[in-house]
């Protein structure tokens, strides 16, 4: 199967980005191919299309399944498994954020909390713990925000995200307000 030029660019780009996102090139390429495919694909078709080994495809599909980013299906009379990416981009986004949190944020929170349970031995450790507490507060605040918006309908999430650009326009307003005043809520124009 030959790829159209746009699809090929997308697949190659996702492969390049894979390393930056914590997965290898092949995983990124396979996901991009499945994301753009109108029909579920079996491993042999993926291997042939991307020119990679069947074993590499199998390992990459397992990786994508561990991220909960694939849907697997079967067909009557066909022993092969077929794979597709979820159609809902918001579901994909939520899943990625959940998996990143489980793999990266939660272990960090555990380390920060356990570090703060230890008594500082000297002034340097006390200062370090103060900084760790600040980091912990920031991460916990971010996580609680995510928990609050996690189950919002996609339309509401879109509006919430668009609100960010509107807030930026307000903060850039060349009136009598300073950004710090708007953030604190000081609106006195006197």
Automatic annotation (TrEMBL):
One Pfam family per UniProt: MarR_2
SUPFAM superfamilies xrefs: Winged helix' DNA-binding domain
Entry keyword annotation includes Transcription regulation: yes
Name of protein: HTH-type transcriptional regulator
Residue ranges of every copy of the HTH marR-type domain listed in the record: 22-80
Alphabetically ordered keywords of this record: DNA-binding, Transcription, Transcription regulation
Membership in a protein family: Belongs to the GbsR family.
Protein source organism: Alcaligenes endophyticus
Gene3D superfamilies found in the cross-reference section: Winged helix-like DNA-binding domain superfamily/Winged helix DNA-binding domain
Keyword Methyltransferase applies: no
Highest taxon above the source species: Bacteria
InterPro entries: ArsR-like_HTH, HTH-GbsR_regulator, HTH_MarR-typ, MJ1563, WH-like_DNA-bd_sf, WH_DNA-bd_sf
